[in-house]
Write a structure and sequence with these properties.
Length: about 280
Protein backbone atom coordinates (compact mmCIF):
# COMPACT_ATOMS: atom_id res chain seq x y z
CA UNK A 1 0.00 0.00 0.00
CA UNK A 2 1.27 3.50 -0.72
CA UNK A 3 2.12 5.63 2.24
CA UNK A 4 0.30 8.98 2.28
CA UNK A 5 1.91 11.57 4.54
CA UNK A 6 -0.33 14.09 6.28
CA UNK A 7 -1.33 17.06 4.09
CA UNK A 8 1.07 19.97 4.13
CA UNK A 9 -0.22 23.06 5.90
CA UNK A 10 -2.91 24.67 3.82
CA UNK A 11 -3.11 28.43 3.56
CA UNK A 12 -5.69 28.65 0.81
CA UNK A 13 -7.99 31.08 2.53
CA UNK A 14 -5.44 33.88 2.76
CA UNK A 15 -4.79 36.27 -0.13
CA UNK A 16 -1.79 35.44 -2.35
CA UNK A 17 0.18 38.35 -0.86
CA UNK A 18 -0.40 37.35 2.73
CA UNK A 19 0.04 33.65 2.11
CA UNK A 20 3.39 32.74 3.55
CA UNK A 21 3.69 29.38 1.83
CA UNK A 22 5.75 28.60 -1.25
CA UNK A 23 4.14 28.33 -4.70
CA UNK A 24 4.76 24.58 -4.70
CA UNK A 25 5.83 22.32 -1.89
CA UNK A 26 6.08 18.62 -2.66
CA UNK A 27 7.05 15.77 -0.40
CA UNK A 28 7.97 12.27 -1.55
CA UNK A 29 5.80 12.47 -4.65
CA UNK A 30 5.80 9.25 -6.63
CA UNK A 31 3.97 8.21 -9.79
CA UNK A 32 4.66 4.83 -11.39
CA UNK A 33 2.95 3.67 -14.59
CA UNK A 34 2.22 0.02 -15.42
CA UNK A 35 4.81 -1.60 -17.70
CA UNK A 36 3.92 -2.09 -21.34
CA UNK A 37 3.25 -5.81 -20.90
CA UNK A 38 1.69 -7.31 -17.80
CA UNK A 39 4.93 -9.08 -16.94
CA UNK A 40 7.01 -5.87 -17.31
CA UNK A 41 7.94 -4.01 -14.11
CA UNK A 42 6.25 -0.62 -13.56
CA UNK A 43 7.85 2.49 -15.06
CA UNK A 44 8.83 4.63 -12.08
CA UNK A 45 8.31 7.95 -13.88
CA UNK A 46 8.52 10.00 -10.66
CA UNK A 47 10.03 8.34 -7.63
CA UNK A 48 9.93 10.23 -4.36
CA UNK A 49 10.35 13.89 -5.23
CA UNK A 50 10.79 16.67 -2.67
CA UNK A 51 10.52 20.15 -4.12
CA UNK A 52 10.00 23.72 -2.92
CA UNK A 53 9.28 26.46 -5.44
CA UNK A 54 9.46 29.94 -3.85
CA UNK A 55 6.77 32.40 -4.88
CA UNK A 56 7.53 35.00 -7.53
CA UNK A 57 10.40 33.05 -9.08
CA UNK A 58 11.13 31.32 -12.36
CA UNK A 59 11.82 27.71 -11.45
CA UNK A 60 13.12 25.24 -14.04
CA UNK A 61 12.98 21.45 -14.09
CA UNK A 62 15.96 20.42 -16.18
CA UNK A 63 16.58 16.87 -17.38
CA UNK A 64 16.87 14.59 -20.38
CA UNK A 65 13.85 13.06 -22.16
CA UNK A 66 12.20 10.49 -19.92
CA UNK A 67 13.50 12.11 -16.70
CA UNK A 68 9.92 12.49 -15.42
CA UNK A 69 9.41 16.25 -15.92
CA UNK A 70 6.04 16.02 -17.68
CA UNK A 71 4.77 13.41 -15.25
CA UNK A 72 5.71 15.63 -12.31
CA UNK A 73 3.87 18.51 -14.02
CA UNK A 74 0.79 16.35 -14.54
CA UNK A 75 0.78 15.44 -10.85
CA UNK A 76 1.33 19.03 -9.65
CA UNK A 77 -1.39 20.38 -11.95
CA UNK A 78 -3.91 17.77 -10.69
CA UNK A 79 -4.17 15.92 -14.03
CA UNK A 80 -3.07 12.64 -12.45
CA UNK A 81 -3.12 11.66 -8.80
CA UNK A 82 0.18 10.79 -7.16
CA UNK A 83 0.57 7.19 -6.01
CA UNK A 84 2.54 8.30 -2.99
CA UNK A 85 3.45 11.55 -1.29
CA UNK A 86 1.73 14.87 -1.11
CA UNK A 87 2.04 18.46 -2.29
CA UNK A 88 0.63 21.91 -1.69
CA UNK A 89 0.20 24.05 -4.81
CA UNK A 90 -0.62 27.74 -4.28
CA UNK A 91 -0.98 26.79 -0.62
CA UNK A 92 -3.69 24.23 -1.32
CA UNK A 93 -3.56 20.50 -0.74
CA UNK A 94 -3.22 18.49 -3.94
CA UNK A 95 -5.44 15.64 -2.81
CA UNK A 96 -8.15 17.60 -1.01
CA UNK A 97 -8.47 20.81 -3.04
CA UNK A 98 -7.68 19.99 -6.70
CA UNK A 99 -10.53 22.18 -8.02
CA UNK A 100 -9.33 25.25 -6.13
CA UNK A 101 -5.76 24.60 -7.33
CA UNK A 102 -6.95 24.59 -10.96
CA UNK A 103 -8.45 28.04 -10.47
CA UNK A 104 -5.08 29.40 -9.38
CA UNK A 105 -2.76 27.82 -11.92
CA UNK A 106 -2.25 27.88 -15.66
CA UNK A 107 -0.76 24.99 -17.65
CA UNK A 108 0.67 25.06 -21.13
CA UNK A 109 1.41 21.51 -22.18
CA UNK A 110 4.41 20.19 -24.05
CA UNK A 111 2.36 19.72 -27.21
CA UNK A 112 0.59 23.06 -27.02
CA UNK A 113 -3.11 23.51 -26.75
CA UNK A 114 -4.42 25.93 -29.32
CA UNK A 115 -6.85 25.00 -32.07
CA UNK A 116 -5.08 25.40 -35.40
CA UNK A 117 -8.35 25.81 -37.28
CA UNK A 118 -9.36 28.87 -35.21
CA UNK A 119 -7.74 32.30 -35.20
CA UNK A 120 -5.54 33.43 -32.37
CA UNK A 121 -8.27 35.74 -31.13
CA UNK A 122 -10.87 32.95 -31.22
CA UNK A 123 -8.52 30.71 -29.25
CA UNK A 124 -8.06 33.41 -26.64
CA UNK A 125 -11.80 34.09 -26.40
CA UNK A 126 -12.54 30.41 -25.98
CA UNK A 127 -9.98 30.17 -23.17
CA UNK A 128 -11.62 33.17 -21.46
CA UNK A 129 -15.10 31.67 -21.77
CA UNK A 130 -13.89 28.30 -20.45
CA UNK A 131 -12.62 30.10 -17.37
CA UNK A 132 -16.05 31.62 -16.87
CA UNK A 133 -15.49 35.19 -18.07
CA UNK A 134 -18.54 36.85 -19.58
CA UNK A 135 -18.51 37.89 -23.24
CA UNK A 136 -17.75 41.46 -22.26
CA UNK A 137 -15.00 40.51 -19.79
CA UNK A 138 -13.54 38.20 -22.45
CA UNK A 139 -13.33 41.01 -24.99
CA UNK A 140 -11.44 43.20 -22.52
CA UNK A 141 -9.10 40.39 -21.46
CA UNK A 142 -8.37 39.32 -25.06
CA UNK A 143 -7.42 42.90 -25.93
CA UNK A 144 -5.17 43.12 -22.85
CA UNK A 145 -3.37 39.90 -23.70
CA UNK A 146 -3.01 40.77 -27.39
CA UNK A 147 -1.37 43.94 -26.26
CA UNK A 148 0.85 42.39 -23.58
CA UNK A 149 2.06 39.58 -25.87
CA UNK A 150 2.18 41.67 -29.01
CA UNK A 151 -0.21 39.29 -30.77
CA UNK A 152 -1.96 41.97 -32.78
CA UNK A 153 -0.03 41.23 -35.95
CA UNK A 154 -1.25 37.67 -36.22
CA UNK A 155 -4.21 37.12 -33.89
CA UNK A 156 -6.65 37.47 -36.79
CA UNK A 157 -4.92 34.59 -38.61
CA UNK A 158 -5.67 30.88 -38.23
CA UNK A 159 -3.32 29.55 -35.56
CA UNK A 160 -2.01 26.83 -37.87
CA UNK A 161 -0.70 29.47 -40.27
CA UNK A 162 1.35 31.16 -37.53
CA UNK A 163 5.02 30.41 -36.87
CA UNK A 164 6.01 28.11 -34.00
CA UNK A 165 7.13 31.09 -31.92
CA UNK A 166 3.90 33.01 -32.55
CA UNK A 167 1.80 29.95 -31.60
CA UNK A 168 3.78 29.46 -28.40
CA UNK A 169 3.21 33.10 -27.44
CA UNK A 170 -0.49 32.66 -28.13
CA UNK A 171 -0.61 29.50 -26.01
CA UNK A 172 1.14 31.22 -23.12
CA UNK A 173 -1.35 34.09 -23.36
CA UNK A 174 -4.17 31.49 -23.29
CA UNK A 175 -2.72 30.08 -20.06
CA UNK A 176 -2.91 33.54 -18.47
CA UNK A 177 -6.53 34.50 -19.17
CA UNK A 178 -7.59 33.91 -15.55
CA UNK A 179 -4.48 35.61 -14.08
CA UNK A 180 -3.03 32.49 -12.47
CA UNK A 181 -0.69 32.77 -9.51
CA UNK A 182 1.44 29.97 -10.91
CA UNK A 183 2.05 29.23 -14.58
CA UNK A 184 3.35 25.78 -15.55
CA UNK A 185 5.09 25.72 -18.94
CA UNK A 186 6.14 22.32 -20.28
CA UNK A 187 9.05 22.78 -22.71
CA UNK A 188 7.90 26.23 -23.85
CA UNK A 189 10.74 26.70 -26.32
CA UNK A 190 11.43 23.23 -27.72
CA UNK A 191 11.83 23.39 -31.47
CA UNK A 192 11.86 27.19 -31.66
CA UNK A 193 14.55 29.19 -33.45
CA UNK A 194 16.99 31.17 -31.26
CA UNK A 195 15.25 34.50 -31.83
CA UNK A 196 11.81 33.14 -30.84
CA UNK A 197 13.36 31.45 -27.82
CA UNK A 198 14.91 34.72 -26.66
CA UNK A 199 11.54 36.44 -27.20
CA UNK A 200 9.80 33.86 -25.03
CA UNK A 201 12.42 34.24 -22.31
CA UNK A 202 11.46 37.92 -22.17
CA UNK A 203 7.77 36.96 -21.86
CA UNK A 204 8.57 34.58 -19.01
CA UNK A 205 10.56 37.27 -17.20
CA UNK A 206 7.67 39.71 -17.67
CA UNK A 207 5.25 37.18 -16.13
CA UNK A 208 7.55 36.88 -13.13
CA UNK A 209 7.76 40.68 -13.04
CA UNK A 210 3.98 40.79 -12.66
CA UNK A 211 4.33 38.82 -9.42
CA UNK A 212 3.39 35.35 -10.69
CA UNK A 213 5.50 32.24 -10.30
CA UNK A 214 6.63 30.40 -13.44
CA UNK A 215 7.53 26.71 -13.28
CA UNK A 216 8.93 25.42 -16.55
CA UNK A 217 10.62 22.34 -17.91
CA UNK A 218 13.44 22.39 -20.37
CA UNK A 219 16.23 20.25 -21.68
CA UNK A 220 18.13 23.30 -22.86
CA UNK A 221 21.02 24.00 -20.53
CA UNK A 222 21.43 27.62 -21.63
CA UNK A 223 17.73 28.25 -21.05
CA UNK A 224 17.87 26.96 -17.49
CA UNK A 225 21.01 29.00 -16.87
CA UNK A 226 19.66 32.29 -18.24
CA UNK A 227 16.08 32.09 -17.10
CA UNK A 228 15.82 30.21 -13.84
CA UNK A 229 16.19 31.73 -10.39
CA UNK A 230 16.42 28.17 -9.13
CA UNK A 231 16.46 24.87 -10.88
CA UNK A 232 15.95 21.26 -10.14
CA UNK A 233 17.97 18.76 -12.17
CA UNK A 234 16.04 15.52 -12.68
CA UNK A 235 17.18 12.14 -13.89
CA UNK A 236 15.32 8.83 -13.86
CA UNK A 237 12.38 10.19 -11.88
CA UNK A 238 14.51 11.68 -9.12
CA UNK A 239 15.90 15.08 -8.16
CA UNK A 240 19.68 14.86 -8.38
CA UNK A 241 20.49 18.52 -7.65
CA UNK A 242 18.60 21.67 -6.71
CA UNK A 243 19.45 25.32 -6.27
CA UNK A 244 20.27 28.54 -8.11
CA UNK A 245 22.31 27.88 -11.29
CA UNK A 246 25.37 29.73 -9.99
CA UNK A 247 25.38 27.84 -6.68
CA UNK A 248 25.04 24.48 -8.46
CA UNK A 249 27.99 25.25 -10.71
CA UNK A 250 30.08 26.48 -7.79
CA UNK A 251 29.21 23.52 -5.55
CA UNK A 252 30.06 21.02 -8.28
CA UNK A 253 33.17 22.81 -9.46
CA UNK A 254 31.72 23.17 -12.96
CA UNK A 255 31.63 26.11 -15.33
CA UNK A 256 28.43 24.97 -17.07
CA UNK A 257 25.23 23.17 -16.05
CA UNK A 258 26.24 20.35 -18.37
CA UNK A 259 29.37 20.03 -16.24
CA UNK A 260 27.11 19.73 -13.16
CA UNK A 261 25.02 17.00 -14.86
CA UNK A 262 28.14 15.19 -16.03
CA UNK A 263 29.64 15.29 -12.53
CA UNK A 264 26.46 13.86 -11.02
CA UNK A 265 25.59 11.17 -13.57
CA UNK A 266 28.76 10.46 -15.51
CA UNK A 267 26.78 11.38 -18.64
CA UNK A 268 26.66 14.61 -20.54
CA UNK A 269 23.13 15.99 -20.76
CA UNK A 270 23.77 16.80 -24.41
CA UNK A 271 24.73 13.19 -24.98
CA UNK A 272 21.77 11.90 -22.95
CA UNK A 273 19.51 13.99 -25.19
CA UNK A 274 21.06 12.74 -28.40
CA UNK A 275 20.67 9.09 -27.36
CA UNK A 276 17.16 9.46 -25.83
N1 LIG B 1 1.03 7.46 -19.45
C1 LIG B 1 2.17 6.77 -19.35
N2 LIG B 1 2.18 5.40 -19.34
C2 LIG B 1 3.34 4.71 -19.23
N3 LIG B 1 4.54 5.28 -19.12
C3 LIG B 1 4.61 6.62 -19.13
C4 LIG B 1 3.44 7.44 -19.26
N4 LIG B 1 3.80 8.74 -19.23
C5 LIG B 1 5.16 8.74 -19.11
N5 LIG B 1 5.63 7.48 -19.05
C6 LIG B 1 7.05 7.09 -18.88
O1 LIG B 1 7.54 7.77 -17.74
C7 LIG B 1 8.89 8.20 -17.94
C8 LIG B 1 8.95 9.72 -17.73
O2 LIG B 1 8.26 10.36 -18.82
P1 LIG B 1 8.00 11.93 -18.86
O3 LIG B 1 7.43 12.33 -17.56
O4 LIG B 1 7.24 12.20 -20.09
O5 LIG B 1 9.50 12.50 -18.98
P2 LIG B 1 10.04 13.89 -19.57
O6 LIG B 1 8.91 14.84 -19.63
O7 LIG B 1 11.13 14.29 -18.62
O8 LIG B 1 10.59 13.56 -20.92
C9 LIG B 1 9.27 7.75 -19.34
O9 LIG B 1 9.94 6.50 -19.22
C10 LIG B 1 7.94 7.58 -20.03
O10 LIG B 1 8.02 6.61 -21.06
MG1 LIG C 1 8.16 15.97 -21.17
Amino acid sequence: MPHHPAPLRSCGSATPESRPCPAVEARRLAKPFPGRRRTDPPVEAVRGIDLTVPRGTVYALLGPNGAGKTTLFRVLTTLVAPWEGTAAVAGLDLRREPGAIRQRIGLIGQRGGCDGTATGRENLSLACRLYGLTRKESRVRVAELEDAFDLGGFSARLARTCSGGQRRRLEIAMGLVHRPEILFLDEPTTGLDPLSRAGLWDEVKAIRGSGATVVLTTHYLDEADVLADRLCIMDNGRVIAEGPPEALKRDHGATTLDGVFLGLTGRSLRHAEASA
